[in-house]
């Protein structure tokens, strides 16, 4: 008997121009376009195996070893149903194809980083789900077409269907058919862009992105200004900066947009605070680091950005990463040694320190644990279809390892 099974992995993305607000909450249609950098899935990824089998009695999904509920009409259900609908179209055109669309599926997924910790697990998760089903169903669909489906799982997930630098075009059609992801530039265009994620220890997220952005849409006057007068020009300018590999412009816009996103969160009634004192201290460090460079006649060397939580993501050309790790570790001592995937410190360990001319009074030194870990990664590629040896489902159609 044939085994109908496929495995795919997908990356995380972190936006430079933030998506914040929906004009349609069911279809997940945004109030503005957005743009992100896809991070390297060699470091952060979701891996998903999907199998269709006539013996399965219902659709099931395990996330990190735990059975998740697929609520009818919910986000997982919508994505799975849409993928089955596309498979059915293939079967209608090619009558010899097995009728996989009529079978139930078992789906098993694993994130190699903390789920729901503000590290965009929903983005890589839904992108991996859609990619594995597309491989299982042998759909002749482009990444942009698949992004239409991932978008209905979580808006930011649509951008994880591409590697490199990716725009989510908001579109204007009420049915959402033109609200999709497009590639602005592939990873190879600007592979020097690295990212340092500062995982800030914090209690559970207070306000989810989904509910927070809806409250902003309902109550913030500033959001209307952002949507109409700010984001369209920023999308143009940052796309040009990426094409020209102009880090100075890229960094300026990225930081401005992170700041404005947190300003509209604050402008929400009641106000939403995602950043904390640690986040703000990291902003002060990056600002001072850039000031030293600019005053010496140079350009911006780093850009911070924050999503709906206190974690910082610092984008920078590879050549600056060592200085930035040294700076962050000086202010935020680490309990564990820095994992050095690019061999920056050549095994010597991080000493901690700042560049010459740096005003050390811009932030206080925090206690161990204020920044829990530092993850060094870089711009990466889009979803990958993996081999049978990477499958997460065993021969019996159940997860191979139960957490
Ligand atoms: N591998 C996965 N496969 C399918 N769904 C996933 C996967 N990983 C995460 N999800 C879904 O995403 C949810 C977590 O999303 P949530 O937005 O709360 O956190 P986050 O994505 O880590 O943070 P943020 O989007 O604010 O950066 C999970 O509860 C689950 O429903
Ligand atoms: C701040 C953000 O990370 C918000 C992401 O929101 P989600 O994509 O998690 O929201 P839903 O569409 O409701 O699932 C900005 C961004 O990624 O563009």
TrEMBL record:
Belongs to the diphosphomevalonate decarboxylase family. One of its GO terms (biological process) is isopentenyl diphosphate biosynthetic process, mevalonate pathway. Its EC number is 4.1.1.33. Pathway: Isoprenoid biosynthesis; isopentenyl diphosphate biosynthesis via mevalonate pathway; isopentenyl diphosphate from (R)-mevalonate: step 3/3. Signal peptide: none annotated. SUPFAM superfamilies: GHMP Kinase, C-terminal domain (SSF55060), Ribosomal protein S5 domain 2-like (SSF54211). InterPro entries: GHMP_kinase_C_sf, Mev_decarb, Mev_diP_decarb, MVD-like_N, Mvd1_C, Ribosomal_Su5_D2-typ_SF, Ribsml_uS5_D2-typ_fold_subgr. This is Diphosphomevalonate decarboxylase. Keywords: ATP-binding, Lipid biosynthesis, Lipid metabolism, Lyase, Nucleotide-binding, Steroid biosynthesis, Steroid metabolism, Sterol biosynthesis, Sterol metabolism. Gene3D superfamilies: 3.30.230.10, GHMP kinase, C-terminal domain. GO terms for cellular component: cytosol. Residues 10-181 form the Diphosphomevalonate decarboxylase-like N-terminal domain. It catalyses: (R)-5-diphosphomevalonate + ATP = isopentenyl diphosphate + ADP + phosphate + CO2. It comes from the Eukaryota. GO terms for molecular function: ATP binding; diphosphomevalonate decarboxylase activity. The keyword Calcium does not apply.
């Amino acid at each position: 008997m044939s085994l109908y099974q496929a495995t795919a992995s997908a990356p995380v993305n972190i936006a430079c121009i933030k998506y914040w607000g929906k004009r349609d909450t069911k279809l997940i249609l945004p109030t503005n376009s957005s743009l992100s950098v896809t991070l390297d899935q060699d470091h952060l990824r979701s891996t998903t195996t999907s199998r269709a089998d006539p013996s399965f009695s219902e659709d099931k999904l395990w996330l990190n070893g735990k059975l998740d509920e697929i609520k009818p009409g919910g986000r997982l259900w919508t994505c799975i149903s849409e993928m089955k609908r596309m498979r059915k179209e293939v079967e209608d055109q090619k009558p010899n194809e097995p009728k996989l669309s009529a079978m139930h599926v078992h789906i098993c997924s694993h994130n190699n980083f903390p789920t729901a910790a503000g590290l965009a697990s929903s983005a890589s998760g839904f992108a991996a789900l859609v990619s594995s089903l597309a491989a299982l169903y042998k759909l002749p669909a482009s990444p942009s077409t698949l992004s239409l489906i991932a978008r209905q799982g979580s808006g930011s997930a649509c951008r994880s269907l591409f590697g490199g630098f990716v725009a989510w075009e908001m579109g204007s059609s009420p049915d959402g058919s033109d609200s999709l992801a497009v590639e602005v530039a592939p990873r190879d265009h600007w592979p020097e862009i690295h990212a340092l994620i500062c995982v800030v220890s914090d209690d559970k997220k207070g306000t989810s992105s989904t509910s927070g952005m809806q409250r902003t849409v309902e109550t913030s006057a500033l959001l209307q200004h952002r949507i109409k007068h700010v984001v369209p020009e920023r999308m143009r300018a940052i796309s040009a900066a990426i094409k020209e590999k102009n880090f100075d412009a890229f960094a300026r816009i990225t930081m401005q947009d992170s700041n404005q996103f947190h300003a509209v969160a604050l402008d929400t009634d009641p106000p939403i605070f995602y950043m904390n004192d640690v986040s703000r201290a990291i902003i002060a460090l990056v600002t001072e680091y850039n000031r030293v460079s600019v005053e010496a006649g140079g350009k911006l060397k780093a850009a911070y950005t924050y999503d709906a939580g206190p974690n910082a993501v610092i984008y920078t050309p590879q050549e600056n990463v060592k200085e930035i790790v040294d700076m962050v570790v000086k202010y935020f001592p680490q309990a564990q040694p820095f994992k050095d995937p690019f061999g920056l410190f050549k095994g010597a360990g991080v000493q901690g320190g700042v560049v010459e001319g740096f005003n050390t009074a811009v932030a206080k030194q925090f206690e161990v644990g204020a920044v829990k870990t530092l993850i060094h990664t870089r711009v990466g590629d889009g979803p990958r279809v993996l081999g049978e040896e990477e499958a997460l489902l065993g021969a019996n159609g159940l997860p191979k390892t139960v957490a």
